[in-house]
Amino acid sequence: MNMKHLKWFDWLIWATLLISPIVVNFILGVSTGAPVYGSTEGWLNFYGNMIGTFIPLYMLYRTRIWNKEDNETSRQLQYDILKYNRQKEWFQSLKKQLDENYQVIDMQSISTACQNIQFGAYEKALQLLMELNRQIEMQGYRFDLYFPIDNRKIQEEEHASVYTDILFEYGNYVNDLVLICNIHTNTLSTQPSEAPKLLRTYINSCHANLENIEQQATHIKVTGRSKILPQLIALPDSSDYLNRVMDICEKRMKDSTTVHLRKEELVKITNQLLKYEEFAIDKIISIS
User: What's the DSSP call for residue 39?
Assistant: First the structure.
């Protein structure tokens, strides 16, 4: 018999069985004046037989209860082990996804694109930037699959918020570099005397397209918002209009340092999330 399975009711039963022979013997030995049918020895034998029958029946009953409890515990343990293994696999996939999230903010490619712009290799820069744009779009959708918006823990929500902000800032920077490439391309492909006018037309067209996108996507955070378009739109017509446009573009290209520094913030919040998820998974077995 496993002593840990005994409960207070079981202890009461066993105590009663141990004490009852003494009590019965005492009762039979007391003269009450009432007639007693049968001898004392006969009543003790009857009581002994009754107890002898009760004990096996009771043990059979308790054994069934204990087996049921053991089976339920065993099933729960098996379920927890399966859940633990499944969550461990998910955790490995999560680590891979978070690593991809970090790598998608590709400052090395950004540096290469900026160098191409500075050396006039606009076509190469555009190809590289459009590939970065594609990666940003795909990575955002993949990340949402791991943490559904309607069922996120606090730590998951904090990480998602930081990552979304960084990805948003990075995406805006990439889009601005695309705009800068197109500005340089438009400037080179026209006569110097016509360049300011055509450039103004192009910038106004970009601004109108962006406003249209924002109006149609009021329920989401638009990653195409530009930091330099408002400045370019606000420039007055002047003899040095083209030079001022180029100054704004050059200053914007230097913002890569700001984006790069935010990657350190992403590393910190990612490590915190991984520790939280791993602790939550380990609790599955420790609780069992």
Answer: -
CA 109 to chain centre: 28
DSSP character at residue 217? T
- Extract the tokens encoding 183: 């500005």
What's the DSSP call for residue 192? T
Element (H, E) at 273: helix 256-287
Q: What confidence tens digit (pLDDT) does each residue in 253-264 have?
A: 988 888 888 888
Helix (H, G, I), strand (E, B) or coil at 50: helix
Q: By the 8 A CB rule, do 82 and 281 touch?
A: no
Q: What is the mean pLDDT of residues 214-237?
A: 71
| Spatial distance between the Cα atoms of 205 and 199, rounded to a whole number of angstroms | 10
pLDDT, tens digit (0-9, with 9 covering 90-100), for 115-171 = 999 999 999 999 999 999 888 877 766 666 677 667 778 888 888 888 888 888 898
pTM: 0.68
Task: Give the separation between CA 16 and CA 57, rounded to whole angstroms.
Answer: 16
**Do 281 and 80 form a contact (C-beta atoms < 8 A)?**
no
Q: What does the alpha-carbon distance between residue 256 and residue 246 come to, in Å, rounded to a whole number?
A: 17
Q: Give the number of C-alpha atoms closer than 13 A to the C-alpha of residue 277, restricted to the C-beta side.
A: 23
**50 contacts 35 by C-beta, under 8 angstroms:** no
Q: What is the pLDDT of residues 194-208, one digit of tens each?
A: 888 888 888 888 888
**In angstroms, rounded to a whole number, what is the distance separating the alpha carbons of residues 142 and 130?**
19
